[in-house]
């Protein structure tokens, strides 16, 4: 019995294959021309030999006790409201030092981004460093302050 299942491959359709073995270069009834690869006909023939065939599907994600699944982690990130980490201008730290600290504290921070953030804080008095979850924003703010920079966090209105 065959069933049409969206996004799945039904293997029971392979039962209509002839009973002879596929040989490289041989004419096959399911292909036009010669068969260059033995992998497909042999896989179909192997599937036909069972009682009912099967359905190829993605493996089920196994979750160990005490650990969250990837879906739960992504959902949690979306649920937490975003916060801005703000860098304030000061007249004590050199510009090069501010760039170095930004690159050290913020993961994935490039030199160009760090220079632009430093320059904006220098000209406008403050600059948004990163928008992230509250806990990560607090960690980044504490790290920036620990390196002698003035920083604060605030809720990001309107999302990321």
Describe this protein's structure.
With 160 residues, this protein is of the alpha+beta class. Helix content is 36%, strand content 15%. It contains five helices and five strands, in the order βαβαβααβαβ. It has helices at 39-48, 70-79, 95-105, 111-124, 134-146, and strands at 9-10, 55-56, 82-88, 126-133, 151-155. The strands form two sheets. It has a three-stranded antiparallel sheet. α3 packs across α4 (111-124). The protein is elongated, with a radius of gyration of 30 Å.
Give helix % range: 25-40%
Average pLDDT across residues?
A: 74
Oligomer: single chain
Low-confidence stretches: 8-17
Radius of gyration: 30 Å
How many E-type strands?
5
Query: Distance between the terminal alpha carbons, to the nearest Å?
Result: 51 Å
Features:
two-stranded antiparallel ribbon; alpha+beta; three-stranded antiparallel β-sheet; 160 residues
TL;DR?
The chain has 160 residues and is of the alpha+beta class.
List the helices and strands and how they pair.
Blueprint: E1 9-10, H1 39-48, E2 55-56, H2 70-79, E3 82-88, H3 95-105, H4 111-124, E4 126-133, H5 134-146, E5 151-155
Antiparallel strand pairs: 1-2, 3-4, 3-5
């Amino acid at each position: 019995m065959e069933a049409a299942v969206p996004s799945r491959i039904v293997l029971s359709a392979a039962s209509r294959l002839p009973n002879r073995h596929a040989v490289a270069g041989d004419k096959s009834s399911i292909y036009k021309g010669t068969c260059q690869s033995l992998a497909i006909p042999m896989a179909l023939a192997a599937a036909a030999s069972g009682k009912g065939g099967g359905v190829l599907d993605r493996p089920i994600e196994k979750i160990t006790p005490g650990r969250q699944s990837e879906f739960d982690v992504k959902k949690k990130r979306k649920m937490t409201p975003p916060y801005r980490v703000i860098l304030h201008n000061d007249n004590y730290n050199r510009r090069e030092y501010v760039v170095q600290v930004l690159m050290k504290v913020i993961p994935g921070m490039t030199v160009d981004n760090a220079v632009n953030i430093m320059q904006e804080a220098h000209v406008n008095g403050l600059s948004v460093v990163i928008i992230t979850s509250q806990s990560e924003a607090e960690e980044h703010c504490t790290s920036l302050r620990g390196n002698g920079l003035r920083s604060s966090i605030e809720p990001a209105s309107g999302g990321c």
